[in-house]
């Protein structure tokens, strides 16, 4: 008689799922470990808030890219162009509306910021749609061509920014209400960084809500795991992908707006410059994982800020070291998606 | 004679430089279970995937209720009322059992009466409704995979080796579930290696080897003819008893 492996009966209880808290604990653990090294609480608080703000902005820029990769295995090295375009879109609002930017009214300042965000997201969303059709679609499933063609697209777009806005850096100070600092004890925290943390948390919450509470979100999560099966259930995953690509591009545009006011200077290459950090974040977080991308962003930014203060000479390589350490611990990133 | 629900004619499928199916011809009549049997590598899975449009037929026609499936995309084929249960089950491990079923319900939320009927077939799914599908056992995952295929009425189910790696008690559960499914309108094309399972469920049978159909007929006739089994499948049934 043929023997079959013993198995639990059909109604036997499956093993309890353990929530994986370890990656989440890394962020507070890192912050706590930095406190004695920094030495002063106000200095540590300033560095930590700066790191969190930077992390949130990186998350906004990276979250779309991780979904694009997760859903269709598309390596979009041109993602940085949406960040640059989003940042330069700020000039379309703040230069003609300079009086509102400098106004003492918080309401006016917020309105300017919102307008910048909307214009940048519409512009980069539309550009994302065209980019997907013209550049990404012909090279589905061909990774090497994807890298070459999306980088080529990015170089062309960067040169177009040179043509449209000129080669000189453009100064874009944030609206009046978000300049300067607030004192928390003896720590000076920049207002704009508090805003960046709030916007990053809002984007993360909105993404979790969409991914976990809507059918579209369900489709995206399923598609990241097994796109072929989603198609076999009757859904057109290509359409879903275009939607995610457009949304990811719009988020990169929003990230570009936040990044522009953070740096206060616009250069055509600013999107490409931040791509190295973005790739580290999505690799550290686990390709296709939004939660992993969020944690990866915070870790990368905090490590950059702490090492920049403690050991400026190693700051440049600190994120590479972080990535190596995390991949040695978890070779598929902090929160690997099931299929990977 | 009544028009078959699904018919394949001269279907050739190539994957890269490999030529897998060499002119597959067979028909699946409406109602009941048609078994697709054959040794490992005979082309059974490729046949199901080609019907589903997951691999494109290089030549030949695949007609379902008069529509040529070879011209359609996978989502369009699924929307004609064809469900696919792959060999690896294809469940979404990060999604809960409920979310897996909601996703398979294309137009609306799952019909509560149909859901209860499914829970009657597979009680484990009700028990673990809110649990991540990745935490289920192999048998429970297979149940979920089949439940997903029948959460809405379908005209044709393509099922690839549902008993693979399952314990005998769960296989008995599967047989009972498929018998219940036979009583519905759904037609089933079932790929199987387990001859006992095939024998207990099949109405018709097609046997494949080397990417071709070698035999078609009634399952009962094949089950009764040991020489034919030996010739087509290399089976020594005594080894299974």
Low-confidence spans of chain B: pLDDT under 50, at least 5 residues? 237-241
Distance between the termini of chain B: 38 Å
Main sheet specs of chain A: 2 strands, antiparallel
* First-last Cα distance of chain A: 37 Å
Strand share of the residues of chain A? under 5%
The CATH class designation of chain A is Mainly Alpha
Average the pLDDT over all residues of chain B and give the rounded result: 91
Shape of chain B: globular
Q: What is the tally of helical segments of chain A?
A: 12
CATH class of one domain in chain B: Alpha Beta
User: How would you name the CATH homologous superfamily of one domain in chain B?
Assistant: P-loop containing nucleotide triphosphate hydrolases
Q: Within the CATH hierarchy, at the fold level, what is the topology of one domain in chain B? A: Rossmann fold
Strand order, largest beta sheet of chain B: 6-7-8-3-9-10
Brief overview:
The complex is a heterodimer of chains A (340) and B (241). Chain A is mostly helical.
What report would you give on this structure?
The complex is a heterodimer of chains A (340) and B (241). In chain A, 72% of the residues lie in helices and 4% in strands. Mean pLDDT of chain A is 91; it is low at 1-8. Chain A has one domain (57-329): ABC transporter involved in vitamin B12 uptake, BtuC (Orthogonal Bundle). In chain A, the strands form 2 sheets. Chain A has a two-stranded antiparallel ribbon with strand order 1-4. Chain A has a two-stranded antiparallel sheet with strand order 2-3. In chain A, strand 2 and strand 3 form a beta hairpin. In chain A, helix 1 runs antiparallel to helix 2. Chain A has 340 residues and is mostly helical. Chain A has helices spanning 22-38, 41-72, 80-94, 98-102, 106-136, 143-165, 191-213, 215-232, 237-263, 270-285, 290-310, 312-329, and strands at 170-171, 181-184, 187-190, 265-266. Chain B has 241 residues and is an alpha/beta fold. Among the domains of chain B are: 1-26 and 56-70, no CATH class; 89-192, 3-Layer(aba) Sandwich (Rossmann fold). Helix content of chain B is 36%, strand content 27%. Chain B has 10 helices and 10 strands. In chain B, the strands form 2 sheets. Chain B has a 6-stranded mixed β-sheet with strand order 6-7-8-3-9-10, sandwiched between helices. A 4-stranded antiparallel β-sheet of chain B has the order 2-1-4-5. In chain B, a hairpin with a 2-residue loop joins strand 1 (6-15) and strand 2 (18-28). In chain B, helix 3 (97-104) packs parallel to helix 6 (138-150). The longest helix of chain B is centred in the last third of the chain and has 15 residues, at 168-182. Chain B is globular. Chain B starts with 5 loop residues before the first strand and ends in an 8-residue tail after the last helix. Chain A binds chain B through residues 1-2, 4-17, 215, 218-219, 221-222, 225-226, 228-237, 337-338, and chain B through 52, 54, 73-75, 78-79, 84, 86, 90, 92-95, 99, 102-104, 106, 122-124, 127-128, 131-132, 134-140, 143, 148, 165-171, 173, 239-241.
């Amino acid at each position: 008689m043929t023997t079959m492996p013993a198995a639990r009966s059909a109604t036997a209880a499956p093993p309890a799922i353990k929530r994986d808290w370890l990656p989440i604990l890394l962020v507070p653990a890192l912050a706590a470990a930095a406190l004695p090294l920094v030495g002063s609480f106000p200095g540590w608080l300033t560095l930590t808030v700066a790191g969190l703000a930077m992390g949130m902005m990186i998350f906004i820029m990276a979250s779309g890219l991780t979904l694009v990769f997760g859903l269709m295995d598309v390596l979009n090295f041109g993602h940085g162009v949406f960040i640059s375009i989003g940042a330069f879109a700020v000039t379309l609002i703040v230069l003609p509306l300079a009086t509102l930017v400098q106004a003492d009214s918080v309401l006016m300042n917020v309105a300017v910021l919102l307008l910048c965000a909307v214009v940048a997201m519409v512009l980069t969303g539309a550009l994302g749609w065209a980019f997907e059709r013209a550049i990404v679609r012909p090279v589905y499933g061909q990774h090497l061509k994807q890298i070459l063609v999306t980088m080529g697209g990015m170089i062309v777009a960067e040169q177009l920014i040179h043509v449209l806005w000129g080669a000189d850096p453009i100064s874009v100070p944030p609206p009046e209400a978000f300049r300067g600092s607030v004192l928390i004890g003896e720590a000076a925290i920049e207002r704009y960084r508090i805003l960046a943390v709030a916007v990053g948390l809002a984007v993360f919450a909105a993404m979790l809500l969409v991914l976990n509470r809507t059918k579209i979100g369900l489709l995206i999560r399923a598609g990241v795991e097994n796109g072929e099966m989603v198609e076999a259930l009757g859904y057109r995953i290509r359409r879903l992908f275009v939607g995610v690509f457009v949304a990811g591009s719009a988020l990169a545009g929003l990230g570009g707006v936040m990044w522009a006011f953070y740096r206060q200077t616009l250069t055509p290459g600013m999107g490409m410059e931040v791509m190295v950090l973005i790739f580290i974040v999505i690799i550290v977080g686990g390709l296709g994982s939004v939660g992993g991308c969020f944690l990866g962003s915070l870790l990368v930014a905090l490590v950059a800020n702490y090492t920049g203060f403690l050991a400026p000479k190693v700051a440049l390589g600190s994120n590479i070291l972080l990535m190596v350490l995390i991949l040695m611990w978890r070779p598929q990133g902090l929160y690997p998606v099931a299929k990977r | 004679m009544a028009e078959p629900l699904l018919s394949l004619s001269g279907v050739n499928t190539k994957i890269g430089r490999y030529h897998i199916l060499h002119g597959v011809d067979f028909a699946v009549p409406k109602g009941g279970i048609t078994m697709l049997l054959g040794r490992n590598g005979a082309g059974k899975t490729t046949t199901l995937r080609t019907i589903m449009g997951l691999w494109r037929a290089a030549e030949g026609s695949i007609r379902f209720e008069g529509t040529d499936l070879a011209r359609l995309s996978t989502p369009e084929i699924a929307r004609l009322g064809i469900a696919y249960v792959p060999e690896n089950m294809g469940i979404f491990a990060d999604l809960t059992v409920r979310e897996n079923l909601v996703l398979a319900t294309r137009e609306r939320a799952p019909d509560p009466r149909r859901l209860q009927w499914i829970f009657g077939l597979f009680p484990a799914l009700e028990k673990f409704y809110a649990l991540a599908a990745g935490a289920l056992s192999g048998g429970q995952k297979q149940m979920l995979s089949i439940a997903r295929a029948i959460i809405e009425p379908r005209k044709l189910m393509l099922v690839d080796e549902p008993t693979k790696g399952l314990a005998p008690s769960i296989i008995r559960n599967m047989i009972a579930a498929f018998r219940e499914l036979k009583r519905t309108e759904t037609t089933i094309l079932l790929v199987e290696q387990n001859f006992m399972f095939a024998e207990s469920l099949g109405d018709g049978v097609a046997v494949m080897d080397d990417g071709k159909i070698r035999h078609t007929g009634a399952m009962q006739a094949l089950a009764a003819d040991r020489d034919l089994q030996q010739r087509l499948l290399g089976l020594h049934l005594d080894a299974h008893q």
